[in-house]
Amino acid sequence: MTPSFLQYALSASAPLADWPLANGLFARWLAPGCVELNRDALDGDSILLSCGVHGNETAPIEVVDEMLRDIAESRLPLRCRLLVMFANLDAIRQGVRYGNYDMNRLFNGAHAKQPGAPEAARAAELEKLAESFFEPARGRRLHYDLHTAIRGSAFEKFAISPFLHQRPHNREQLAWLSRCGIEAVLLHSAPANTFSYHTSRCCRADAFTLELGKARPFGQNDLSRFSGIDQALRQLLSGADSPADGEDLSALPLFRAKYDLIKRSDAFRLHLADDVENFTVLPDGMLIAEDGDTRYIARGGEERILFPNPGVKPGLRAGIVVEPAALD
Ligand SMILES: [Zn+2]
Q1: Which is catalytic among the residues 36, 119, 127, 211?
Q2: How does residue 243 score in pLDDT terms, banded at 50, 70 and 90?
Q3: Cα(240)–Cα(293) distance, rounded to whole angstroms?
Q4: Which residues are annotated as part of the binding site for Zn(2+)?
Q5: pLDDT digits over 84-126, tens only?
Q6: By three-state DSSP, how is residue 195 classified?
Q7: What average pLDDT does the chain have?
Q8: CA dihedral of 64, 69, 73, 78, whole degrees rounded to 10
Q9: Which among 18, 60, 65, 264 could bridge 146 via Cys, Cβ 3.0 to 4.6 Å?
Q10: Cβ partners under 8 Å of residue 273, min gap 6
Q11: C-alpha–C-alpha distance, residues 67 and 63, integer Å
Q12: Mean pLDDT of 261-276
């Protein structure tokens, strides 16, 4: 029987090796926690699944590990190139979001500004592996960076589409996300130092950060809550993915970032409950936050709060105010 990919990834002494699998393929460990399958199938889709960029977001790690096991034991046919990354191994071992520095702020070259942080070296390594994975690809280039959120959300499952600069949004991919059970998509309008922005920008992948529910420790996840993404990914990997039904996106709420709440000083006060859910509506006229003389007031009644976090250091983003958006 194949050893658990995840257990192997987490074992500090595991050598990099090629594993022969029951289906005749090889799993190649390219770096600790990074395993590639079907490398030479260049005409098929090239799919990167990353998980554990935040080490305590365990459900996607379990879902991906189970998929790898099923591929290895011939229960799931693999009809694409696949690269899986268990990203922040130290944080996964410790059950924490990150050790020194939030890894999902260190991509897009930002690792060079934090030379001391172990997460920075790892982000640089993951960038390189992603680039060499996608570089020869002739089929679709897809990257799903799988997360769970710290807090509850009015939309339990949502996706973040990184800023695309001049590229149009891929409606087929948005429709696919909707079939996965994704309930809303934030269309980012500025560059970010996230993994999905990096692969979108540098590898020209259709890349998304997927927030799939609430973060819980290993063994405490109700994996049935992840069945939508699990099944959709399995169909994608096995080539059983059906084309979108007319790519009808009318049922998928889209949002864009209107502005960031920037914490400029320790006087910053966020006037939302500590446990406020992501995508909570901000009533017209509501005082969202204040920081000395600066007051952030909700306008129009359709704005919503995303990723509120007043505990960040001054100078950093303490939340995003989003508003409904439409595709061009
Ligand atoms: Zn995360």
Answers
A1: 211
A2: low
A3: 56
A4: 54, 57, 147
A5: 999 999 999 999 999 989 999 999 999 999 988 899 999 999 9
A6: helix
A7: 93
A8: 20
A9: 60
A10: none
A11: 6
A12: 95
Q: What angle do CA 99, 215, 176 make, to 5 degrees?
A: 115
Q: State in words which class domain 260-324 has.
A: mainly beta
Are 302 and 273 in contact by the 8 Å Cβ rule? The answer is no
- Give the H or E element holding residue 319: strand 317-324
302 is catalytic: no
Distance 309 CA to ligand 1 centre (A): 14
Q: Please give the radius of gyration of the chain, using alpha carbons only, rounded to the nearest integer.
A: 20
Distance 32 CA to ligand 1 centre (A): 20
* Domain 5-237 -> CATH class: alpha beta
Domains 5-237 and 260-324 share a fold: no
> Which runs of consecutive H residues, i.e. helices, occur in the chain?
5-10, 58-72, 89-94, 118-134, 171-179, 195-203, 227-237
Q: Could you tell me how many residues make up the chain? A: 328
Q: Quick one: average pLDDT of 257-279?
A: 95
| CA 135, 137, 140, 143 torsion-angle sign | negative
> What is the 145 CA–ligand 1 centroid distance (Å)?
9
Average pLDDT for 122-139: 98
**Could you tell me which residues are annotated as the binding site?**
54, 57, 147
CA of 54 to the centre of ligand 1 (A): 5
Confidence of residue 208 (pLDDT cuts 50, 70, 90): very high
**What residue spans define the domains of the chain?**
5-237, 260-324
The string of pLDDT tens digits covering residues 34-84 is 999 999 999 999 999 999 999 999 999 999 999 999 999 999 999 999 999
Q: What is the DSSP string of 232-269?
A: HHHHHHTT-PPPPSTT--TTS-EEEEEEEEE--STT-E
C-alpha–C-alpha distance, residues 47 and 84, integer Å: 8
Residues paired with residue 141 on neighbouring β-strands, in sequence order: 46
95 CB contacts (<8 Å, ≥6 apart)? Answer: 55, 56, 58, 217, 218
